[in-house]
Amino acid sequence: EIIIDKEDKKKLLGLIGSLTDDEIRSLILDVLTPIGYNMITTSKEIDFLIEKLSKLVSTSIDNSLHNLKNT
I need a surface site. Which of 27, 30, 36, 57 has the fewest CB within 10 A? Predict the structure, then answer.
């Protein structure tokens, strides 16, 4: 399980990192609902983070499944 503490979250996400999960969901809904689209334009740094996190998640799932198979 990956745990990100509040300071790291704030460093990664700036002002949004200091919001609670409920506040982030509310913000996203407020931004997307009026226009009816579910798209957000992001910077290249976000693309990098998503790519690295997706590899981490996929590797973790793969390792977990292989460990289940071997036990």
Answer: 36
> pLDDT confidence of 58, banded at 50, 70, 90?
very high
Comparing CA positions, the residue from 22, 21, 18 lying closest to residue 6 is: 18
Q: Which two tokens stand for residue 27?
A: 């913000």
Contact between 32 and 24 (Cβ < 8 Å): no
Q: Could you tell me which of 31, 7, 32 has the C-alpha nearest to residue 17? A: 7
Convert the pLDDT of each residue in 6-47 to its tens digit: 777 777 777 777 778 888 888 888 777 766 566 677 777 888
Beta-carbon-side half-sphere exposure of residue 36 (alpha carbons within 13 Å)? 0
| Continuous H helices in the chain | 6-13, 21-32, 44-70
